């Protein structure tokens, strides 16, 4: 945290956060067979956890919820391609994301998995107090705005209709 009242997750600190998060999962004895990342922020987390936990089976689910800074759809929605449930069937799945803010996205993915898998747990770098989902594994809880290393700068390419979310 800096004096501007925000959390600042640098790439170096992210490495520490993911390693500590992985250690917490390992210490708990949970051995996921699949890590399901919520794109986009969860991609970074899932990759780091996959290496640290020795899990090579990483999958991605795309969910749209935030449309701008503080602006959301009424409900989160899956974007294609939606994971095939046969690939998840009877597996131990760890859902990974960067932050559980409202928790709506995590809830959507968790509930989708719960119907098809042997066990589903959630892991995030940050969890906010208002999150609908109380995650199984959290590196840090905060009520502050988070500046992630990968999203604080505007995109190199600005696509039509795209809003910079930092």
UniProtKB/TrEMBL annotation:
Which Pfam families does the record cross-reference, listed alphabetically?
A: Pribosyltran
Q: Matching InterPro entries, A to Z?
A: PRTase-like, PRTase_dom
Spell out the Gene3D superfamilies in the cross-references. 3.40.50.2020
Domain (Phosphoribosyltransferase): give its ranges.
14-153
Which GO molecular function, any one, fits this protein according to its record? Answer: glycosyltransferase activity
- Transferase recorded as keyword: yes
Keyword flag Repeat: no
Q: What are the alphabetically sorted keywords of the record?
A: Glycosyltransferase, Transferase
The protein depicted here goes by the name: Phosphoribosyltransferase domain-containing protein
């Amino acid at each position: 945290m800096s004096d501007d009242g925000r959390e600042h997750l640098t790439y170096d600190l992210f490495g520490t956060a993911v390693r500590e998060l992985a250690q917490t999962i390992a210490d708990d004895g949970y051995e996921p067979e699949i890590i399901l990342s919520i794109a986009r922020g969860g991609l970074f987390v899932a990759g780091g956890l996959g290496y640290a936990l020795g899990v090579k089976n990483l999958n991605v689910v795309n969910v749209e919820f935030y449309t701008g800074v503080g602006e959301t759809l009424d409900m989160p929605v899956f974007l294609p391609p939606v994971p095939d449930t046969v690939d998840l069937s009877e597996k131990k799945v760890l859902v990974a994301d960067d932050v559980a803010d409202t928790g709506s996205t995590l809830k959507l993915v968790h509930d989708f998995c719960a119907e098809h898998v042997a066990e589903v747990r959630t892991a995030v770098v940050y969890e906010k107090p208002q999150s609908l989902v109380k995650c199984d594994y959290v590196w840090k809880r905060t009520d502050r705005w988070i500046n992630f290393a990968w999203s604080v700068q505007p995109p190199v390419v600005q696509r039509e209709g795209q809003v910079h979310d930092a």
